[in-house]
Amino acid sequence: MRLPSRPAEMIREVFARVHAWARHRSRRVPALSLAVGCPKITSQRRRGDPRAFCHVGCRAGKVCCSALVADLPLEHAVGLFLHELGHPMAWAAWRSSDQHGADAAVRRFLGIRLRYSGPLLIQRVPASVAERILRGRR
Ligand SMILES: [Zn+2]
């Protein structure tokens, strides 16, 4: 599987593939595009939150992420993006979109169970699942 080598392009490609896969899987996944670099994430990180990589809802129709997502293993990048897609699905379904609700929506509507691992306890899917999603296999 070939991904662009430049970090920002690689992140955009990973998001586009995860989003397309998820939209095919469930009509509950809203149209969203990715904004790489968000001043709110930068300031969260500066204030000492090393788990601040992504969020949704800060700008209409956007998932925001830090360029540092490019440094994470793909299993984590895919997990993070799926989790962000879970927030609007959880809100639409249950009027609740806390962290647990986002993961529950990913499980219920996309059939993927997110786990948390690594020193920062970042969302993760198994490598085989990341591979399948990034290759666009249903
Ligand atoms: Zn933002």
Blueprint (SSEs and pairs):
Layout: H1 7-25, E1 33-36, H2 39-46, E2 54-56, E3 62-65, H3 74-94, H4 99-110, E4 115-117, E5 122-124, H5 127-134
Parallel strand pairs: 1-3
Antiparallel strand pairs: 2-3, 4-5
Helix pairs in contact: 1-3, 3-4, 3-5
The chain binds zinc ion.
How would you describe the overall organization of this protein?
A hairpin with a 5-residue loop joins strand 2 (54-56) and strand 3 (62-65). The protein contains 5 helices and 5 strands, in the order αβαββααββα. Helix 1 packs across helix 3, helix 3 (74-94) packs across helix 4 (99-110) and helix 3 (74-94) packs across helix 5. The protein is globular and about 35 Å long. The chain has a single domain, classed as 2-Layer Sandwich (Zincin-like), CATH 3.30.2010.10. The chain has helices at residues 7-25, 39-46, 74-94, 99-110, 127-134; strands at 33-36, 54-56, 62-65, 115-117, 122-124. The protein has 138 residues and is an alpha+beta fold. The strands form 2 sheets. The chain has a 3-stranded mixed beta sheet, with helices on one face. Strands 4-5 form a two-stranded antiparallel sheet. Helices cover 49% and strands 12% of the residues. Residues 38, 40, 55, 58-59, 64 line the site of zinc ion. Zinc ion binds next to loops.
